[in-house]
DNA sequence: TCTGGGGTCCTAGGACCC
DNA sequence: TCTGGGGTCCTAGGACCC
């Protein structure tokens, strides 16, 4: 029988901010989304205040302030680096690891000796990550990924567990699942939960007991798999080598609305350049590109415009110049004066390997020159900072549309000038 | 004043083909 | 009044995840 663990970092972004700020150990901490818009991470103290995940910051600003909360803008350079360190440690502890998100990983523990005592194994994982990286993790263990996720939920729910729980034994499982709202099950979101509750399915145990034919009749097959996993039969294998990415999206809300095309052009160019960098990072070429613009949907009284358009690239490419040309061409067609746009974005699709996109008519020497140039640009920017080399249409320096990040912490671990100093 | 960003999978329905 | 059936591909929308 397979056995999985789900390990995740507690309140990851908030814990990451605390790592280099021991003075914040007992203070409430929140981290905001891009543009300092929403709450995306909360320390335990903030959760206790009843501040929900995803809440717009301006609505809870006063509450947070009077509790003496330390507020941070998202610092992805820091989180990505710490995430990589956590994953490296996990890879030393388990034969196979699937990095599932920036702050969590599934471990395949099948056949591991440590499993005679799963809880002890979980405690070892906690201790190792804490000593290697300095971050607190929780560990859930179960015979399927869905049950490992649920065990992780239980581990966090009840302080008695100290962040480790196991759902391997069938009879313990039946009891535990009764107390878990169906909404907490991995794969059951708000919509499905509502419909399930209308059918009288309130707990994870209820879902496990729901007849398979009934589920398939009313829901997509994905939910049938989820229920099967709750019953202890694995439908999802560990995916330690994920399939190549299918699309790349680069989009941002602006720091202030854009009313002039010249500013939109700068923004779209900026996003296209970033999307292209990320594309090259995957080693793939893009065959199609979409641009979208959006006004502010929260301002119902204002005129709304949310145009988008795609085009297939003449030849699949990872060259920033090609992607810029295509993106700006579309943006120009989408643009209509008289609107206050608050967001724009680029999507790259039909990603494919360079080999797959070459044919009889491919100009291989032009391709080689393009690859070399882009490689050089990327290398310089990696070494000297993201905008050491920019393209003509990109704006250098500040602009009103750039994202707000008022409370950004230093890039402690990835930039020499930001290295923490001990006095 | 202030409401994130980046992904995947599934399904239904239309277009098209034989 | 009559106007098949079945297959494949694509797209849009909706659901989920973090």
UniProtKB/TrEMBL annotation:
GO terms for molecular function: damaged DNA binding; DNA-directed DNA polymerase activity. Residues 4-189 form the UmuC domain. It comes from the Bacteria. InterPro entries: DNA/RNA_pol_sf, DNA_pol_Y-fam_lit_finger_sf, DNA_pol_Y-fam_little_finger, DNA_polymerase-Y, DUF4113, PolY_HhH_motif, Rev_trsase/Diguanyl_cyclase, UmuC. PROSITE patterns: UMUC (PS50173). Keywords: DNA damage, DNA repair, SOS mutagenesis, SOS response. CDD domains: PolY_Pol_V_umuC. GO terms for cellular component: cytosol. GO terms for biological process: DNA repair; error-prone translesion synthesis; SOS response. Belongs to the DNA polymerase type-Y family. This is Error-prone. The lineage of its organism: Bacteria, Pseudomonadati, Pseudomonadota, Gammaproteobacteria, Chromatiales. The gene is umuC.
